[in-house]
Amino acid sequence: MLNKIYDWVDERLDITPMWRDIADHEVPEHVNPAHHFSAFVYCFGGLTFFVTVIQILSGMFLTMYYVPDIKNAWESVYYLQNEVAFGVIVRGMHHWGASLVIVMMFLHTLRVFFQGAYKKPRELNWVVGVLIFFVMLGLGFTGYLLPWDMKALFATKVGIEIAASTPLIGHELKVLLAGHPDIIGAQTLTRFFAIHVFFLPAALLALMAGHFIMIRKQGISGPL
Amino acid sequence: MHRGKGMKFVGDSRIPSERKPNIPKDYSEYPGKTEAFWPNFLLKEWMVGAVFLIGYLCVTIAHPSPLERVADPTDTGYLPLPDWYFLFLYQLLKYTYASGPYNVIGGFIIPGLAFGGLMLAPFIDRGPKRRPTQRPFATGFMLLSFAAVIYLTWESADAVDWEAKEAMGAIVEEAEIDTNSDGFKIYQENGCINCHGDTLSGGAAAPSLVGTGLKPEEIAEIAKNGRGGMPAGMYKGNEEDLVKLSEFISTLEAK
Hints:
The complex is a heterodimer of chains A (224) and B (255). Helices cover 71% and strands 1% of the residues of chain A. Chain A is mostly helical. Chain A has a single domain, classed as Cytochrome Bc1 Complex, Chain C (Up-down Bundle), CATH 1.20.810. Chain A is globular and about 55 Å long. Among the domains of chain B are: 35-62; 84-159, Helix Hairpins; 182-251, Cytochrome c-like domain (Cytochrome Bc1 Complex, Chain D, domain 2), CATH 1.10.760.10. The longest helix of chain B is centred in the N-terminal third of the chain and has 26 residues, at 37-62. The relative contact order of chain B is 0.07. In chain B, helix 7 (182-189) crosses helix 10 (239-250) and helix 9 crosses helix 10. Classes of the chains: A mainly alpha (224), B mainly alpha (255). Chains A and B meet through helix 1, helix 2, strand 1, helix 3 and helix 4 of A and strand 1, helix 1, helix 3, helix 4 and helix 5 of B.
């Protein structure tokens, strides 16, 4: 049955080459922890992706309850944390996952750096990877405000003040982020929500697609 | 693969009508102990992922994510702290030559050089050698930056009084207070309100009186003789009012 459906789609869309590109490739011995245990360092990139997927899924469920306005944001998070079935676990996964993704990405970066895996011909993939790092930090920064509790508000104030001290475009940058020259309030919360949920994830997915396509094209770097 | 003249397509589409069988390649002839990604290696990754997920869930259950009280922009005494992965950047801004008039150095030049260097690493470290020992500058700079990040994060976290910080952000329990009751009037007249506040939720100098779990007699005892930072003799009214006051306070429960 499944095979027939596959064949039916394949005849019309020729999906076998796509499937080949995604799944059908060899895993060399030097990256396989089953052969050399020290190859576990190659897991960090995959684990970063794994945690990112969890972040996207848990975030999708959080937005089912979260309300991005200053009157209800904290109340909705409090409700999610204390009343919703398994809300504490979903929010917990998103909260700890944010830290975990940074840790895994940091380890992945160190692995690639110390192995010199960014050298020709993989320079572009390294640059895209560093951009992913920045997007992740941006996601962490914007997500910190959303619960609208004390540390959220005051840490964001500090962050926006730092952005405001940027040479030349400081003031514009501050207004763009905060939505107002002086107030960190309702407008800031909705902007951070939009950045956290739409802008940065879109950038992240595009960059990750580029990252993975380049890996598939070039293959993983050889042993040292 | 058939190319060019004589190709047949499905209908008027660009899909070739010739079917390719979807059989994975055989990697046994590749160098070393190469393994097929699908499904052999993916299955192992799946198992590692499952173990990782269990550990992750255990952390989540053991440490519920924190939530402080609702943001109050008027509370100027609150000490802000960014999330831990920004602490090293935050700490940098505390040093004399990286803050105030030199803010640009701590806020942009140093982080800019560090992150710019990271981004441009493949164009700076261009040699063909890959082993860390064969490229001492790249390795040295990375180890130095790594040590600096660890040091700055440590310094930043070490300077924080975590207990005081937790108390500053703790969710304050609020009770429904009948301000027309005798108890509240006595509370007001005797000046209790000056330290314990008009919502009885305490303040900088006094703890909250909401949900204390104390019996009226115990509260009367404290009102007369004080406790902790509260001196004796704060209550100056008569015994009858004291009973009313202590009963009023003992019934306060959070909403």
